[in-house]
Amino acid sequence: MKDPRRTLPRALFATLIITALLYALVVWIAIITVPPQELSKSAAPLALVFERLTGLPLLMMSLIAAVATLNGVVVHMIMIGRVLYGLSEAGALPRVLSRVSGENRVPLMATLTGIAFILLLALAVPLAGLANFTSAFTLAVFSVVNVALIRIHRADPNPGGDYFRAPRWVPYAGLVASILLFLVSLAPH
Asked: Do 162 and 4 meet the contact criterion of CB atoms below 8 Å apart?
């Protein structure tokens, strides 16, 4: 990024706006395709919309979901490996995780550790429990990141340098939102 002070905020807000528009478009298509009363009674409302729009069997929707899920798992394998590598490089994890392969510079040990962790969770925890754990863990990570941002703001309120810095209220809002979402997730459904 050549000008992160300008491009990073634009990219973040553009991503949020595009995502919100896509969600709104999906909701709009669902509502014009299937009456809201019928959607609310369905155990799988998007599958119902898919079936009505395409006329294809639900098996096709299942295949699409499986491919999307596999893609997400692969992305997480890569991401976890990079996070473990970075933490190892910073001295927060054992040094062995910062070794990279000589051929293509991939953090092989860190990636294999991440894959082993994913496999262990997938085999040991039922799917519903795994989904709940993943959501709770993600909110915990968001909370920790926001606490870190608050501490950075307090430690150096007027830093120099040419990088993006979120307004002071953003990490507080993010921390409160993460905690509230976590508490809502604990409520019985």
From this structure: yes
- With contact defined as beta carbons under 8 Å apart, do 149 and 166 qualify? yes
User: SS3 of 2, please?
Assistant: coil
Nearest to 108 by CA among 92, 121, 97: 97
List the chain domain ranges: 1-56, 57-124, 126-189
How far is the CA of 19 from the CAs of 9, 142, 164, in angstroms? Answer: 15, 19, 22
pLDDT tens digits for range 12-45: 899 999 999 999 999 999 999 999 999 999 988 9
* Count of beta carbons in the 10 Å neighbourhood of residue 136: 14
pTM for this predicted structure: 0.61
- Tokens, residue 96: 């062995």
Distance CA 145, CA 39 (A): 37
Residues 6+ apart with CB under 8 A from 88: 94, 95, 96, 97, 98, 110
